[in-house]
Design brief:
By secondary structure, the chain is mainly α. It folds into 2 domains: 33 residues; 93 residues, no CATH class. It is 57% helix and 0% strand.
């Protein structure tokens, strides 16, 4: 009986040590994997000085898209019916629309400054009809 008891203890200790080794190996394998790419929200955003957002000095049409998106997102957030609001040029508006097509989640940040036209209406309608995008953006779209 004692031999059976000792054999069982030895078996369970061996099994326990093996399980710990497997867990360490699996954990180490997971830690050794490369990190996933950053999402848009996690990416570092370029810091701009306050003068960058001056209404009298919009970025040129050929500015990097990141600069255009940052500038016009700020102008969109400052856009009110009670003050002077600048609008992007046709070229800049087209570039912003292309960026919104590539990343539909950002379109709500530009609805006030983009010229209303068939392309914008169709794009918003298509995004709104996409159930996943509609659920994710519903709180933002209700405020626009």
């Amino acid at each position: 009986m004692q031999q059976l008891f000792l054999c069982l203890i030895f078996f369970f200790l061996t099994l326990s040590l093996h399980a710990q080794t497997v867990n360490r190996t699996v954990l180490q394998d997971l830690l050794d994997l490369p990190a996933p790419p950053a999402t848009l929200a996690e990416q570092e955003f370029k810091e701009y000085p306050p003068s960058f957002y001056d209404k009298k000095n919009p970025p040129p049409d050929d500015a990097p898209i990141e600069d255009l998106l940052a500038y016009w997102a700020m102008q969109n957030s400052l856009n009110t019916n009670l003050s002077y609001n600048i609008c992007p040029t046709e070229t800049v508006a087209q570039r912003i629309l292309e960026a919104c097509e590539a990343n539909p989640k950002i379109i709500s940040g530009y609805l006030k400054i983009l010229p209303s036209g068939a392309r914008l209406v169709d794009m918003v309608k298509r995004f709104f009809e996409d159930e996943t995008l509609a659920k994710e953006n519903e709180p933002h779209w209700r405020n626009q």
